[in-house]
Amino acid sequence: MSFFNVENLTIKFGGLTAVDRVNLHVDEGEIVGLIGPNGAGKTTVFNLITGVYMPDTGSITFKGTNLVNMKPNQIAERGIVRTFQNIRLFKGLTVYDNIRTAGHLRIPYSFVHSLLHTGLYERREKECRENADKLLGMVGLLDRKDEISASLPYGMQRRVEIARALALKPSLLLLDEPAAGMNPQECVELIDFIRKVKNEFSTTILIIEHHMDVIMNICERMYVLNFGKLLTEGTPSEIQNDPKVIEAYLGEEQEDVED
Amino acid sequence: MSSGFLKRLGALVVQVLVVWGIATYFKQSLPAYPIGILTVFCINAILALSWNLVAGFTGQFSMGHAGFMAIGAYTSALLMMKAGWPFLPSLIAGGTLSGFAGFLIGFPSLRLVGDYLSVVTLGFQYIITAILNNTVKLTGGGLGLAGVPFKSTLPVTAVILVITMWLITNLVHSKHGRSFVSVKEDEIAARSVGIDTTTYKIMAFVISSFFAGIGGALIGHYMMYLHPDIFNYQKTVEVISMVILGGIGSLTGSIAGAFGITLLPEVFRNLATLFGSWGLAAAGAFVKKGWTVFYAIMFLLIMLTRPQGLIGRKELTWESIGKIRLFKKLQKKEV
Ligand SMILES: Nc1ncnc2c1ncn2[C@@H]1O[C@H](COP(=O)(O)OP(=O)(O)OP(=O)(O)O)[C@@H](O)[C@H]1O
Ligand SMILES: [Mg+2]
């Protein structure tokens, strides 16, 4: 039984096949990359995995159970948690409340305890606060925890979003372009940070990224997507020297020039 | 049992006793007119809190709150009058049936993404009115229902307000409350962190309907008379205006808003009589007829200058009151 397996995954939007018969797998403890030119279908793959979209065909299995037809919250509950390319924080809430809101799944108490603020409520909330403090300490945002999350600079919002995902103690973490908008120095920090996350939370990571230095550095293995199809799969050095990949990216650059 | 829980429960009991004491004192020493206003204020505050729970926290808009109030009002009144039930069980049954209606309405409409709830609840309120008008034998229909027992005294309504406020405040400051807010903030993000947003939306709506039913029942037991037209669209708008005035998403704001909206018509009414007694009959008549215009202008001004309401999303605390400039000046003088 493999850890995470995607088979023959396909979705069409009107006439466009955004994801076309994609197969991929991730083993426990790996950091796997998913790259490809703009519009290749990478984010759509994440949306399919997390139940935002329903695939037309194909299967997604995680620890032996099929995730297709499950709701996004059920998938998150099972331990697959994502971040978003465009960052989706609870903008009006403080950094602290963003984390606490996400931690709920792992600190169960029922409605009656909420209504009466019982002893169980008190203990669970304390756990939740301690957990949030720990996570914020780890991402280096403890001193900004009472700020409204939308008021933070972009890079910090990214870290809040990752901390929020970690509050669920995910076994598979999906990161959608975590380095977007970061300068080279921040990218180096991010690499260390992702490694630290992997070690401290013993989570498995699937990461979409355009910054080649980031992805080549942390991934053991990667998949290349182009026009919805899997172009190739391999280690960073194999990918870097693959003529098909170079062509796909060069093609994109030419298109960009025409734009 | 933790000592923290017992402490909080103790604090509630003390609050209830104090409010009961003060309200009883008022009831015995004040004339009927201000007592009436205060009683209506307490009922309105319960209604405003109930509407705010859904709109202010989950971001869903119920436009048919009067329908739920009607269910609570008729249930409680009829149980007392026709089945001989005592007041408290009738009241709770009214709230419960209303909450159940909330579930029936919320379950299909809150599963959909978008503002279906507003449309469905608006329709629901008209259906309730139609049902009431057509069940003459049971509810009196358009003739109204007279002889509803008077139970909504000032102490009773004030204590129910205190308990409602306690429960809703507790709820808001819990994992359930934060899940409500996550729906309003970003439903997709909420789902991505495992929050079953549909369930939480329905939950908030059912609780809100329950308290709307309680508030509606209290109206019946205050007016001693019920009529389908009491629970019309205007009644819903009145409750909404309280929440908007105080600040959507602020519980203390709802209470302040309820106070303002309850008092305002009385102020204008008295102003009209005052002008009349000064011999300014024209001015008196103008105020009497035109106060709704002031009302509208006031709301326009609020929407233009402070769309978040007077208090916004914050809560009024003794601390924050102390921070108001006027009080600061006073404090300085004392030093
Ligand atoms: N909901 C949708 N409806 C219609 N088309 C969509 C939808 N979502 C994605 N697409 C299309 O599917 C294709 C793949 O989009 P996707 O966002 O997955 O690309 P991507 O690889 O993540 O690109 P980028 O690197 O720019 O983020 C694009 O052509 C996009 O326009
Ligand atoms: Mg993308």
Q: Can you put this structure into words, describing what you see?
A:
The complex is a heterodimer of chains A (259) and B (335). Chain A is an alpha/beta fold. Chain A has two domains: 1-79 and 170-259, 3-Layer(aba) Sandwich (Rossmann fold), CATH 3.40.50; 90-169, no CATH class. Chain A contains ten helices and ten strands. In chain A, α3 (95-103) runs parallel beside α6. The longest helix of chain A has 20 residues, at 119-138. Mean pLDDT of chain A is 91; it is low at 255-259. By secondary structure, chain B is mostly helical. Chain B has a single domain (3-249), classed as ABC transporter involved in vitamin B12 uptake, BtuC (Orthogonal Bundle). Chain B is built from 15 helices and two strands. In chain B, strands 1-2 form a two-stranded antiparallel sheet. The longest helix of chain B is centred in the first third of the chain and has 27 residues, at 3-29. The radius of gyration of chain B is 21 Å and the shape is globular. The A-B interface holds A 50, 52, 71-73, 76-77, 81-82, 84, 88-93, 97, 100-102, 104-105, 107, 109, 111, 113-119, 121-125, 128, 164-165, 167-168 and B 1-2, 4-5, 8-9, 167, 170-171, 173-179, 181-182, 185-186, 188-197, 203, 313. The complex binds adenosine-5'-triphosphate and magnesium ion. The site of adenosine-5'-triphosphate (ATP) has 12 residues of chain A, from β2 and α1. Magnesium ion binds at residues 42-43, 85 of chain A.
The major pleated sheet of chain B works out as: 2 strands, antiparallel
User: Structural class of chain B, please?
Assistant: mainly alpha
Q: Can you count the beta strands of chain B?
A: 2
Instruction: Provide the domain count of chain A.
Output: 2
Instruction: Tell me about the largest β-sheet of chain A.
Output: 6 strands, mixed
The assigned structural class of chain A equals alpha/beta
The overall pLDDT average of chain B reads 89
Major beta sheet, strand line-up of chain A: 6-7-8-3-9-10
Strand percent estimate of chain B: under 5%
Low-confidence stretches of chain B: none
